[in-house]
Structure formats: structure tokens, C-alpha cells
Design goal:
InterPro entries: Bact_HTH_transcr_reg, Chorismate_lyase_/UTRA_dom_sf, Tscrpt_reg_HTH_GntR, UTRA, WH-like_DNA-bd_sf, WH_DNA-bd_sf. This is GntR family transcriptional regulator. Residues 16-84 form the HTH gntR-type domain. The structure is a single chain. The protein is 28% helix and 33% strand. The chain has 248 residues and is α+β, with helices and mostly antiparallel strands. The chain has a six-stranded antiparallel β-sheet. A hairpin with a 2-residue loop joins β5 and β6 (146-156). α1 (18-31) packs across α3 and α2 (44-51) packs across α3.
């Protein structure tokens, strides 16, 4: 898929290296959708000539985005946009809604939906007795047809009726809202670890690849725990976005 040449503004008097300026502007164009997945960049010689840069400078800029997973070099095709990294704000929202808002074409594959006894950890999170029945839903969330996250959610068994078709059509939080559940707050922990072999195969990453982890207990407006989530995200495709305020 060809595209019109993008315009870049490079400040040669800036202490910021030219390759970094170019890579940042290319990344911004990908994030804005000006370079959609599948778009082809001009070759390094053409781009270097158009911008008045050396070929090694352009190569370094492109390589930095290849390393981030935003571009890929394909033999006989050229340098191609793969996808933009999703930057998710830290707020009480669903991954499906965030991907849809970012025009990432979300899709869902239900891996498992079963009723099982609550472990001590799940029971503590949901406020139920250990061994009580809870609903487990495991899904694979995709963006532009590529794996993005493995989602594991435990819910009170009587909370709402769910079927695979509904779960593959939209996000869990949207289904909760449609059932009249008002989401109010959540406790969330973010971490990171290496992918196991099975996790890597599921998420199209090599064993040992970095994964972001997120655990969340979500409460409705009555204070009832309605969800205990344990999610894995591809670090190459996904980031959490923080806004920090100075302590007064």
C-alpha cells in the first residue's frame, strides 16, 4: 500500500541527533494513522536524498523503529509499517474500548469459559468463600489480526449471563454496562516478567520475551467486587501511559 511522501521538519542546530528526530516523527506519523499498517516507506536512499541526510542516519532512524516493532524490513518488498504501539491510559476502561478508540481494529478469541472453584487468591479479591463457584473467562485480544494480550477474568458466577459470541463481539466492561452494572473503581497492580513457552506461543513472542502484567479488582457503585483480572500484554506492542502530579 503506497502513500504520499510525508513531510518532516529537522532541526540541524538542535542537540537532538538527526536520526532521533526522524525516528520520533516517523513514530508520530504511525501513531496518528498517517502511516497505516501495511504502508511502505521509501527506500533509504530515496528518503536520505529527499531529506538531505546521510544514508547511515536514515538507516539508524529506521532501525530504531524496527527494534520497537513498528517497522519491518521485508526482502523484495522494502520497509513496511507493522503497527503502532498501543499506549493505554491508566483509567478504568476496557482494553477493547481503548483499542477501538485508537482505531486498532480489536478482535477477541475466547479460549475458555468455565465455572470453577475459587482459589484463596480469587476468593479474597471477589469477597466470596474459598471453593465457591466463580466464572473464569480466558480470551486472546488481537489488534489488526495480531495478538496483543492474554486476558484472564474471574467473575461472580451470578453477575451476568455471558456467551462466547457476545464476548467475541465486544468488551467485557461494555457487556457489564449493558447488564446495568455501574463500574465505579478498581485496585490495580502493574508488573513485568518473562514469557513462558506457552505464553510466547499464544502471544507470538519468543520464550523469555518481556511481558507486561496487570492485575485488577474492579468494584461497582455499591462496593461489590465484580471482576478479578489477570492480564498479560506484549511489551513490544503495548505500554501503560501515566500522568503524574507533583505533591503539594
Amino acid at each position: 500500500m503506497a502513500h504520499q511522501p510525508l513531510q518532516f521538519t529537522l532541526d540541524r542546530g538542535s542537540p537532538v541527533p538527526l536520526y532521533f528526530q526522524l525516528s520520533q516523527q516517523l513514530e508520530a506519523a504511525i501513531e496518528r494513522g498517517e502511516l497505516a499498517p501495511g504502508s511502505l516507506l521509501g527506500n533509504e536512499i530515496e528518503l536520505a536524498g529527499r531529506l538531505g541526510l546521510s544514508r547511515p542516519t536514515v538507516r539508524q532512524a529506521i532501525q530504531s523503529l524496527v527494534d520497537k516493532g513498528l517497522l519491518v524490513r521485508r526482502r523484495g518488498v522494502g520497509t513496511q509499517v507493522v503497527h503502532s504501539q498501543v499506549k493505554r491510559p491508566l483509567e478504568l476502561s476496557s482494553l477493547y474500548d481503548d483499542l477501538e478508540e485508537a482505531r486498532q481494529k480489536p478482535a477477541t478469541r475466547v479460549l475458555r469459559r468455565v465455572v470453577e472453584p475459587a482459589t484463596a487468591r480469587v476468593a479474597a479479591a471477589l469477597g466470596v468463600a474459598e471453593g465457591a463457584d466463580v466464572l473464569l473467562v480466558e480470551r486472546l485480544r488481537l489488534a489488526h489480526g495480531e495478538p496483543m494480550a492474554a486476558l484472564r477474568n474471574h467473575l461472580p458466577v451470578e453477575l451476568l449471563d455471558l456467551d462466547d459470541e457476545a464476548l467475541e463481539r465486544t468488551g467485557l466492561y461494555r457487556l457489564m454496562r449493558m447488564a446495568g452494572i455501574t463500574l465505579h473503581s478498581a485496585r490495580q497492580t502493574i508488573g513485568a516478567r518473562a514469557a513462558s513457552l506457552a505464553e510466547g506461543e499464544l502471544l507470538a513472542e519468543p520464550e523469555g520475551a518481556p511481558l507486561l502484567t496487570m492485575e485488577r479488582t474492579t468494584f461497582d457503585d455499591t462496593g461489590r467486587a465484580v471482576e478479578f483480572a489477570s492480564h498479560l500484554y506484549r511489551a513490544s506492542r503495548y505500554a501503560f501511559d501515566f500522568q503524574l502530579l507533583a505533591r503539594s
